[in-house]
Amino acid sequence: MVKHFGWTWIGAVCSDSDYGNNGMASFLKAAEQEGICVEYSEAYYRTQPRSKLKRVADVIRKSSARVIVAFVAAGDMRFILEELSQQPPPPLQWIGSEAWVTDPQMLRFNLCIGAVGFAIPRSVIPGFRNFLLDLSPKQALKFPLLTEFWESSFSCRLKRQTGSSADMPACDGTEELRALQNPYTDTSQLRVTNMVYKATYAIAHALHGIICNKKQCDKNIKVEPRQVFDQLKRVNFTKNNYSVSFDTNGDPVATYELVNWQLQGDGSVDFVTVGQYDASKPKGQEFSLSKSIIWYDGSEEVPVSVCSESCPPGTRKAVRKGRPICCYDCINCADGEFSNETASILRPHTCQRQGRFRLNGVYQDGDVILGGLFDVHLFTVFPELSFRTEPDPPYCEKFNMESFQHAQTMVFAIDEINKNPNLLPNITLGYHLYDNCLMLGMAFRAAISLASGTEESFSNLNCTGPPPVIGIVGDPSSTPSIAISSVLGLFRVPIISHYSTCSCLSDKTKYPSFFRTIPSDAFQPPPSVCSESCPPGTRQATRKGLPVCCFDCMPCGDGDISNKTDAIECTVCPDEFWSNPEKDQCVPKVVEFLSYEDPLSISLTTASLLGTCFCAVVMVIFYHHHNTPIVRANNSELSFLLLFSLKMCFLCVLLFIGQPQLWTCQFRHAVFGISFVLCISSILVKTMVVIAVFKSSPPQGKSAMKRFGSAQQRCTVLLLTALQVVICAVWLSTASPTPHKNNQYIRSKIVYECTIGSVAGFSVLLGYIGLLAAVSFLLAFLVRNLPDNFNEAKFITFSMLIFCAVWIAFVPAYVSSPGKYAVAVEIFAILASSFGLLVAIFAPKCYIILVHPERNTKKAIMGKDKLNK
């Protein structure tokens, strides 16, 4: 807020307590980061000597800062304002914390007209006012606390009260609460009251989750505080349009109203809501102003609070020696220059009387008991000790109507819950509410008594009193809450405070069982920074020419992380790790290979098995028709050998699928190379046979066939294949392929692949296959013009053309394919070339055998011209 309105010269006061000191420390840190100068920072607590209060007031009077930030509890603020009223300072613009900015008792101080501050939202509790006004004199006689309230309200003495002041007249029964106008009966500003209401309902909902099903509750279930503590973490409900839930720190969603003290036409001062803050809204939309702010001088123009006015162009700042940087003189530029914890152990159920100081409160029995701590009195008086007689017990003074209303709110909420047939059916809640007299020792003692079940006021003579409570609503102050939570947290006794705002209580390591229905001081004062903190996954990048607190949050690069807020640089993940999408932790890289479950692998495997089956079917057809002219004319022995080699080509694909292992890496290319050489060798020999038969004259042709008969054909195929076997053996023995985890192709993944070992060996293997394919293609092309009906050479030419085209296209596709897709490209080339050979060579023959058997004759195959010759 201070930054928003451009104030750079301010004063600050706080309560000398955990609440004030923690809040002020947060504010001063933010102010320093924003270049806001604090002229003074004073702390005061109401029990400190009067001389210190006067000194604080004198500092405020003499200050030149027109804006003052007050992180002060309501009780301390009253003392400060009373002291300032005796000698009013110049008009000041007060910035208040939620502790006092909506306290009705402050309205009598005209010093604070125009004050602004974030406050707990005003709320409505249906039926609450009628409940407060239903108190009768008879009911007030039940508990001393209620009696004191009645007598304080009407300045009369109830009958049968021996401790009342004799100066007060007796109450005559005509007293009517509805005619009163005091903080107790005023329900127009239900702010903290609603926090008590929500805290009580939160415990009730936690109980419901433990002992109730959809229809009823089992009162025989013994409820432990630890169970309530665990269930409170999951509480999430809506009551009177107010949602209640807790985050991991036990805090609610921060919602505030920006309140402005505005002077009304009748001369009274009223709290006017001029803006809202809701942390649940999207970033940048949390804060909004709905009305104009009326400042301390009665205008809508933002007051100025600076130590020195801005220096105009042509001058420069000269900081005054010994003063903050906001205090400076404007010096003209020279010619030629310009400017533009304590360890405590609580033993539940241990009976030990802790002195004679009675705890003052109200109670009601029930199946389950809730505890409550409220500061119904503002002072504790300790009688002087004479050491001659038994000392009188301390007593409390100055009845606080507003806090008594808070206590009655808890009573009202429990009464409302007990009447609700759905929330805790057949379960009656009881309560034990205590007055802590705004004293740390009293609050701590009351909390220990509630948790251990040893309240002296209820079990005066023995230790068979009420059972321990399952949860405590309160304490309203941060300092007692810190002390109580640090001890009761050891036993997971849940404490839900309605007014303790210290951000330190969000530390679940120190205060694990602490919850609250009021937002933490982490939202008081409002954040004021040049740049928001950089979350994990980003790093700070300082903006050029600006202070170090002004920076941009740059996302970490791929493979880099930052796992803390406001990281200066990102950390590189180890080799086998990669950054997660949030860039806040390193996770193992995904290992990529063609697994059997991969849809691509399934498709390729299916194609491989289909090709194998087709080869088997063709072999069966050829075997069944092996005596027919078309089979005999195509050299049935070489045809069967070719089909066998094609079947091996299809099956070798299976070695390329699955996680690479040493034996699969060694055999995949060897089996592939030998199978294809066997296949191409068979085709080459078939081509040579065709040449020998059709390119020679009849006598020479017969002689050629004798010299290149079946034995020679087999030997040629075996010799050519054996050469490939030798190449593979030398390659595998000298530089064998091995499995390898490659993280160079894709940095975010590990590609599990087979290295080829020796590039030369693999090149010779492929080169030999290519050489045989080229020779086969050339020979087949030369004899393509055979008799019209004998198209074997044409089929071989076409098949080798397909083979060569596939493998020529394979090279660039293989080189440009990443990871497992390179293996898939190689498999596809094997399958495509194998299917090309199978279809081009054998499909026409199977077509004639199965569809046109009339053409499966010697005459049809040789053609008429050939037969005539």
TrEMBL record:
Keywords: Cell membrane, G-protein coupled receptor, Glycoprotein, Membrane, Receptor, Signal, Transducer, Transmembrane, Transmembrane helix. Residues 600-865 form the G-protein coupled receptors family 3 profile domain. GO terms for molecular function: G protein-coupled receptor activity. It is a multi-pass membrane protein. PANTHER family: C-FAMILY ODORANT RECEPTOR OLFCQ19-RELATED, CALCIUM-SENSING RECEPTOR-RELATED. Belongs to the G-protein coupled receptor 3 family. TAS1R subfamily. This is Extracellular calcium-sensing receptor-like isoform X1.
